[in-house]
Amino acid sequence: MTVPCVRVRPQAGEETRQALADRDCLDTRYDITVEDGWLYLPVTDAPDSFEVVAFDAPERETQTTPADLLGFDPSLERLGDIVIIDEDDDERAQAIADAVMASDLPAKTVVNRASKIKGELRVRDWDVLAGNGTETVHREYGCAFELDIARVYFSPRLATERHRVTEQVREDERFLDMFAGVGPFVIPAARRGAECVGCDLNEAAVDYLRRNAERNAVADRVTPIHGNVRELVPEYENWADRLVANLPHSANEFLDTAVALAADDCVLHYYDIQHDEAPFAPGLEAIREAAEPAGYTVAVETERVVRSYAPHELNVCLDVRLTR
User: Fold this and answer.
1) Is 300 left (phi over 0), alpha (psi -120 to 50) or beta?
2) Which of 140, 137, 149, 73 is nearest to 112 (CA)?
3) How many CB atoms lie under 10 A from the CB of residue 40?
4) Which of 29, 34, 109, 293 is most buried, judging by how many CB atoms fall within 10 Å of its CB?
5) Which residues contact 133 (CB under 8 A, 6 or more apart)?
6) Per-residue pLDDT tens digits for 282-322
7) pLDDT digits (tens, 9 = 90+) for 71-104
8) Cβ neighbours around 6 below 10 Å, total
């Protein structure tokens, strides 16, 4: 049947598939097909940034889903080959896990959230309901990230936001992620040719960052550092052309450090969580209070709502240029 398809070369297939999946516009009723040196990905709409053509894509053979086995559609989140659920009822949670493993989903482990994110390292507890491990390899936009969800923080929901930021990175730029985790900002920035520094308090996360730099063939452009980002001053004072400060509940406490690390012309990507009545004003005020006494002018380039965080609370990003 002729349906709209994004057409790309096969070597760009996984990156494109992930981008379309993040936008929730893949048409899963039809198979992804290779023909005459092109890959055709069926879509439900036509994103402007992709070439969309009409193509006779074969209908996908019916696969068994967890919903087929349960009689209801459970809420699932995928991270590599781990399926994550969030259920208070233990019996219901186990039933969902059993259905996932019996379905055609490519899952090796099913876990249920057993605690909120906690502690300085922002990790949580998990109940492993099926399978036997919490380590996986997650892929997004052509990068592969090895991680253990029981030891590090990682949110697949932020893939599109990370891509938005790292697509702005220029070759030979000096890029510093103040709270780098396993490298979801650092690795794609390094792939674009930037010299990158990633710092994190979590020693396990820094170990995975180092491994991910090697896995993605950018180890020569990535410096992983275990410790408090404040300790990077003075070694990296006035160094960074671009800074990422993605610690939404407390990044404001590190703005003096961000200003010290910023080069004379630096873009700061500052993440915050604020009330939806004025989600950007508190962050901008805090940035000005830290930057202007140090001789910087502050210019807002982008104000972006990343996602809803809680009732009347938004996770937002301010892209701000600091110029001295």
Assistant:
1) beta
2) 149
3) 24
4) 109
5) 108, 109
6) 999 999 999 999 999 999 999 999 999 999 999 999 999 99
7) 999 999 999 999 999 999 999 999 999 999 998 8
8) 25
Distance of CA 27 to the CA centre of its chain: 23
With 0.85 as the threshold, say if the pTM is over it: no
State CA 212 to chain mean position distance: 14
The answer to which of 139-143, 199-203, 280-284, 291-295 has the lowest mean pLDDT is 139-143
Pick from 120, 151, 145: nearest CA to 133: 151
**C-alpha–C-alpha distance, residues 57 and 61, integer Å:** 12
**Measured CA distances, 97 to 59, 65, 88 (Å):** 28, 12, 13
Quickly count: other Cβ atoms within 10 Å of residue 158's Cβ. 20
Q: What share of the chain is helix, strand, coil (3-state, %, to 5)?
A: 30, 35, 35
C-alpha 20, offset from chain centre: 15
How many angstroms separate the CA atoms of 60 and 277, rounded? 45
